[in-house]
Amino acid sequence: MPLIKDIDSILKYGAKTTSYKFATLLAIFDYIIENPSERPANNFHFIPIIYLAKQFLMYYYPFSFTDIAQGTLAENKQPRVILTINYFRDKVQEQAANGSELFKNLATVRENGFKWIAMALDEGNQLPSPLINTLAQIRETILKQPLKFIDKVKQDVIRFFGLMNKNRPFTATYDEHLTAGLECKFRGKMTWPEMLDADDTCLLLDDITFNELARLRFWGREVIIKGWLEYIVNLSANKTKNISAFDVLELFNAMYARDFERDAELVTRYRRAYESFGGLQCLYTGNDLTNRPWHLDHFLPWVYYPVNRFWNLVPSEPRLNLDKSARLPEWTPALETRLLQHLVSCIENRTDPIIHGDLAYYYHFIQKEPAFDFEHAESEKIARDVLVHVKKGLESLELIIPGNRFNPEGS
């Protein structure tokens, strides 16, 4: 397949003075893993460059606490992204005492600080200026380095995506769109959705390529992580540093094996919201959970669908959540009815900040309908729309995830 050959060629033969090419490809696959059923616009999919910057921040933040080499640079020199993150961490320490709750949390944790950053972005609140500046600087680095050179492999040009700047005609060249993207500015006070909106430059994937990458998304992620891992270990060996593959793999595992139950604040917010809505019942059996122990379960397992939104976080009896583990649920008429009830219950309480934020995200970034007035639309209509989205997500996973399905009523 040409697409697989292109990715393989970039990984094997593309020049790499830093690990940025791995991070760029990984960010593309992570976007698709998060949005496998995304609707195309005019037969294209658009990934904002600032999204890549967010992913770079997540990937490199744990590495900034180590001396693990990320490029063939002179001794004691570090890639610009690491320097940018280090500067951000200095600002966090300076402002922790009088700064935001985010800074206070970051000041007390190390490698796992990226989890607090991810949560702050998901909440949709105004971000502290140092974080906005960090994301903007990483975005600039991505445009100047990996996106400028990622397609040059030996004497060939390999490009399975394009660039699109809103201020340039579609027919402008890749380099013209890239140069225009460097002119984008982000004002001092913004939310994460506002930053995504403000970014005037996106990666461009046609729908055929996007769907092919979606089919290969878990394979692609594993291949890229393996290549990045080997790159780091080989670099360290050349610099006579004793870095084991296990040490590096642990940092990658921290990013992808995020333990939802340890995100106590997020768990508490959803649990409190669901309990306040009333009528709490187990999604898988319909049993009443009022005044009983219950778990929040990822309906589509986190390992395959890393989404913490009300349509993927459902009440479950503890024993069933543990039994389900990372298995895909079996879609049955009874399950569909209970899931629809869960969605309606949440949407009828859309004034709750966490549900309101999730709906804003859904219509803005998944349905590509930012002008849709979800605040006044009929609850069941929205719920059925979201239900279709969840079902499509499950169907896309069923095509590539082997194993038996979870159905407590059928076992």
What does it look like?
The mean pLDDT is 88. A hairpin with a 2-residue loop joins β2 (152-153) and β3 (156-157). With 411 residues, the chain is mainly α. The chain has two domains: 2-256, no CATH class; 260-398, no CATH class. It has 18 helices and seven strands. The longest helix is centred in the middle third of the chain and has 22 residues, at 217-238. The chain has helices at 2-13, 20-34, 49-63, 80-95, 101-106, 113-123, 129-144, 146-149, 174-181, 192-198, 207-215, 217-238, 245-256, 264-277, 318-324, 333-348, 353-366, 379-398; strands at residues 44-48, 152-153, 156-157, 162-165, 201-206, 295-298, 313-316. 55% of the residues lie in helices and 7% in strands.
Task: Round the Cα radius of gyration to an integer and report it.
Answer: 22 Å
What is the structural class?
Answer: mainly alpha
- Tally of discrete structural domains: 2
Determine the mean pLDDT: 88
Q: Give start-end ranges of low-pLDDT stretches.
A: none
Strand order of the largest sheet: 1-5-4
- By DSSP, the count of extended strands is 7
